[in-house]
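Bit of a strange request maybe. I'm writing a small parser for structure token strings and I need a real example to test against, not something I typed by hand. Could someone generate the tokens for this chain?
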Amino acid sequence: MSANTNAPTEVRAPHDPLARESRPSVALDGALWLVRHGFPVFPCDHPQLKRCAGLHKTCDGSRGKHPAVAFTRGWTLDERKVHETFARGLRNPAVAVGACSGPNGTRLLVVDSDRPGAIEDVASARGEQWPATMRVRTAKGHHDYLWYPDALKLGNGLGQLQGQFDGDVRAGNAYVVGPGAVHASGVLYELEADDRPPVLAPAWLLDALVTKPTFAARRTRWANASYPASSGVRGLVTFVLDSPQGTRNNRLFWAACRAAEDGQDAEDALLSAALQAGLSEREALATIRSAYKRTGATT
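Reply from user aminoacidic:
Good idea to test on real output. This should exercise your parser:
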């Protein structure tokens, strides 16, 4: 299914941002805009709910981003189902990145900048100019939507950009919160321009993402992470990040076993490290859950 690049019907909302953020129809409008343009949608938790609607057993406090369904198979492009889903109550719309196909069989890549202009700075440092593409403003920065050739098989790893880019990338079995969603801070995710489709990812970006990072770059990501000194989580995360290809799954399993045996709440940190090391989300989650089950713990 290719994303429709025709300009959508304009979605209007009240001028008062607080009133807009409290309207469930904003999430519905965002979800409908997405499916009408070929982006598979599923529901996530909403920060205004009293309890997290995510599928996980325990919430890490990052409200509004946890999938309320198994997103790799619970997404839809059916407007009728979107109406039914978002009429049941407050839910944030999210995009199943790996389920989205673009022109000529291309796949979706989302560049998540943790501050405004972060990816532009990376491009400038390389003597390049960042292209104008579909952009969703977020609480901290922005999501840029791009197409890339399916043959590359990208994931969530930053490749050569580790330590150089203030943000992340999402491709393959991944998801991002979409326009119309509300961040835990109350900020609304909004399209910068509702008639601007994704463009092809620049060659320099793709080259960087498929180039293995240096040992120092792999460690930079978590160098300043603030974990309790007694938890040992920092060491386990570094152990996973430094996994040579061919050992990533085994090292993740070992780290998860140690965390479970010590009663550490390290699942999210280990999952993030595994994704950056190059494992898919499905594979990493299965490994972590297997480790916790083996030790008698639960995730």
